[in-house]
Records
---
Amino acid sequence: MKRLLLGMTALGLIFGVTGHAKADYTFTTFDPPGSISSNATGGGINDAALIVGSFVDVYGTHGYLLRNGEYTALNFPDAILTRANRINDSGQIVGNYRDANNILHGFRLRDGQYTTIDVPGADGTEPRGINASGLIVGGYDLAPGMVFFHAFLLRDEKFTTIDVPGEVHNDAQDINDPGEIVGRYDDADGIRHGFLLSGDGDSYTTLDVPDSTSTLAWKINDCGLIVGTYADAAGSNHGFLATPNNNDGGNKPCNEK
C-alpha cells in the first residue's frame, strides 16, 4: 500500500511562514428563516454557488438549498428529520433522512424528485458525496448501533462496497469529478487513517499526517487537493491540506490539470 506523507514544511510554504495574513474576503452570514441554528459544514457548495446544508427550527431538523439569496427547505416526504449533505454542478443533492421508525436512509434529490438510497441489507445509509457524473459515495451501518462503519460507491444504481486493505471499519466522504474518492478507515490497532481511492477503483493510498495519531480525509477537489483533520500527540485536532506531488517531487498547483 502506498503511503502519502504530508510535509509540514511544504504546508508552511503554501500558507506562509510567519504571522497572520488578513483574509481578503467579504463574509456573508446566512440562516434560514425561523431557524434556531444552521450549518453548512455538513453540506456543500457547487460551481454555481448553490449551497446546501441543514438547519433546526421548532419543528425539527431540515435540509436547505440556498440559491441567489432565497432559501428552499428540503424535507423528504413523511420524514422526521432531513439533512442535505452535498450538491453537484448539475444541481443534484444527496443527503439522509429518518423515517417514522427512526431508521436512517439516504436520498437523492434530482429534478424536484426524491429517491431513497439504501444499501441492501444495511441498518442505515448516508450518502456524503456526489460528483458531476452522479456517482455517489457514503457510509452505511452493518448492524444496529454501529455508526457508518463501511463505505460504498453507487454507480448506475448499483452499489459497490469499498474495501480498504487492512481496514476494520471505513467510510467514504467525498468523490471528485475524475472519480477519486477520499475517506477514513480504522486499522486492527484502532488507528484512524485517511485514504484516497484512485485509478480504476483499485489503487489505494493511505493518508497520514506526519507524527499524527489519527488522520481523516474529508474533501477532494478536481485537482486532487485533499483537506481533512488530524490529531497530534496531545490529542488536539488540526486541519490539513494534502497537495499531490508530481514526478519530480514538486507540488502540482491546482491550475495544472
---
Amino acid sequence: MTVIVPEQTHTELAGLYRRGLYLQAYRMAEEIAPLKEWTGADRVMAARLAAHMGAPRLSLWHRLKSWREAPDHPEVKYY
C-alpha cells in the first residue's frame, strides 16, 4: 500500500513537530495511515515521529527504507 501525505498535511505535521507537539502530530499522522505503512520521502517524518513516540526500531527502519526509496530527495539526504 502506498501512502501519499498531502502537502498541506505534511506542512501541518512539520509545524506540530517543530513546536514539540509530538503526540498531536502522531495522532494526525495515524489518521492518514499507520506509520508502518508510510512510504517514500514521507518516511522521514514517520521516522522522526516514531523516535519520539518510543519506537526506535521503527524509526531506524523508516530511515533506512527512505534512503533506499528516495536517495536523492533533499529531506532524506538531510536526515
---
Amino acid sequence: MRQPQASTVIRGHGIPLLFLAAALCLVYAHPSFIPPVKAEKAANEKAAIQNSAVEILRDNSILPEQVARMRTEMLTAAMSGDITALRIPVEMNEIPPMLANEKVSDPIDYWRKISGDGQGREIMAIIVELFRAGFVRKAAGTSDEMYVWPYFAEVPLDKLTPAQEVELLTLVTPERLKAMRASGKYDHYQIGIARDGIWHFFWNGVH
C-alpha cells in the first residue's frame, strides 16, 4: 500500500499538512506571537490592585520604541562583561545620565571605582538584574513620561506581597531589606529612561 506523502490534504479542510506545520512553527517560534504567561498576567493585576496608586508592569513589548532601544543598548553593554561598552548608551544621550549627587566626569572610571570587583562588573550585574524586574510608568501621557526600574522604587515597601519580597531579595540582601523596611524607602539602584529614550539616571536610592 502506498504511504501518504507529507503534503497530504486533511480531509474536509483542504489544508496541506506541510503548510499547517509551517504555520505552527511560525506562531510558536517567533517571540512576538507567544501569548503572555497567564500566571504572570495575574500577578500584574494583583500588583496593580495591591498598590492602587502605581501600576506594576512586566511586559517589555509595551515600552515605547526609543525606551526599548535604550534598554537593549544598556543590557547588551552590561552583558558584554566589558564596562567600556556602556560608553555607547551613555553617549547616545546629549548629556550623561545622573549617577550621583556630585558631577561625574567619566562614568566608566566612576563605575570601576565604586564596583566591588574594581572592574565595573558588579555594576553591570546590577543593571542586568534591574531590567529583569518589573517597572513603572510615571506621568503617563505627558511630556514627563518616565519608565523606572525596578518598581520597588515607586511602591510602599510595607505593601509588598510575599512573592514581591522574594523578587526584591534577588536585588538586595535580607539585612538591606530590613533596613529599607525600617526607613520605609527603597534605597538600592534604580534606572530611569524617558519616553524619548533619554537615559536620565542610574543611581542608588541615597545617591
---
Amino acid sequence: MIQETGGGPGSVRSLLRGNVGGLAGTSLLNDTASEMAYPLLPLFLVGVLGAGPAFLGIVEGIAESTASLVKLGGGFLSDRVGRRKTLVVWGYGIASLIRPLLAAAALPWHVLAIRFTDRVGKGIRSAPRDALLVDSVPPERTGTAFGLHRAADHAGSVLGPLLAAGILLLAPGRLRVVFALTLIPGILTVLLLFKAVREIPPKGGDAPTVGSSTPPTSLRALGPTFPRYLSVLLLFTLGNASDAFLLLRAQDLGVSAAAIPLLWGAFHLSKMVWNVPGGMLADRFRPLPMIVGGWLLYAGVYAGFAAAGTPLQVWVLFGIYGLFYGLTESPEKALVAELAPSQLRGRAFGVFHFAVGLGALPASFLFGVLWQWKGAPTAFAAGAGFALVAALLLPLALRGGPSPLTHGHAA
C-alpha cells in the first residue's frame, strides 16, 4: 500500500506526533503570514509604487538567490555544530519580524530591501530544517515526511490568501493593512517552533568537527553523482522564473485584483493535495520518475500560459501547475537525502538550495526582460524549453551512479 495512516512506527500518524508534525505546523503558520503578502506584491510594486516587470524580476531574482546563498552557509554550519533547531528558530524569527515592514514601503527599493532580509531568514532556516526532518524519520519514509511538511506549508499558502482576500473585502485597496497583519501568524510561528520541535543529533556518525578544513562549497565529499544531479537541476531552474510572473500573467488575461488572492489560494490548495501522494510515490517508486514526470508537466503548463487567452484558462493552468509541485518538491529533496552521506545532509541540502538559487536571479531577470522585450508568450515558451531539455537529461546524469538506497540511507 502507498498510504499508511495507522499508529505504527513510520506511519503518517506517528510522523505527525514528532518533529514532522511540529515543523509542519510551523511552516503552516509561517506560510500563512508569507502568503498574505506575497500574491499582492506584484500589484503593489507595479500598481502602487510604479515599478515594471523587469524590476519585479530583479526583486524576485535577488530575493531567491540571496536565500540560496545563505542556505549554503546554514546547512554547512548546522553540520559543523551538530545543532539544527537554533538556526531554524533564528531563520523564522527574522522573517516574522521583517515581513510586516512592507506596510511602510514607499519606494520600490524598500520592497527589495525587505524581501532581501526576509529571504536571509529563509536561507538560515531551510537546510537545517530539511536535515532535521530527515534525521527525525525512518529512511524509507523520507519522501512521505517531506510530503507532509510541504502539504502543511501549502495549507498555509491557502489560508494566507484567503485571509488577505477577506481583509481586502472589508478594506478595499488597503494592501498595507494586509502587510501589517502578517505580524500575528509570524509571532505564532516562532512560539510553536519553541514548543513542538526538539533537537536531534545528526544520524550516520558524528558531524564534522569545527576544525574541518573541507570548504562549505566542496562537492567531493557528497559523491560523484550528486554534482551531476545539481547541474541538471540548475538547467531546469534557469527556466523556472518566479511564480510572481504567473500572477502578473493572470492579471493581464483579465483576472481581477480581488480574485488574485483567491487564485493564489486555489493554486496552493492544488499543491497541498498533491504533495503527500507525491512523497509517498517517491518512497514507493523512487524519486527519479516522479521528478522527470513533473518537469515534463511543467513544460506543458508553461506552454499553456504562453498560449492562454482567457481567465478560465488561467484558473485551469494554475490547478494543473499544483500537480507539478506535488510530483517534484518532495522527490527532489528525497533524492538529495538518498545521494548524500547521512552525516553531511545539512551541507547537501545547503548545496541543493544554493544550486536552485544560483539559477533564480538570471531566470527571473531574463524572464522579465523577455516579457518586456518580446511579450509574455515568448518568455513562457522559453521556460518550457528549459524544462523539457532538463527532463530528458536527468536520467542520463544519474546513470551509473551509486545506489541511492545504500549510499544515503546508511544508519
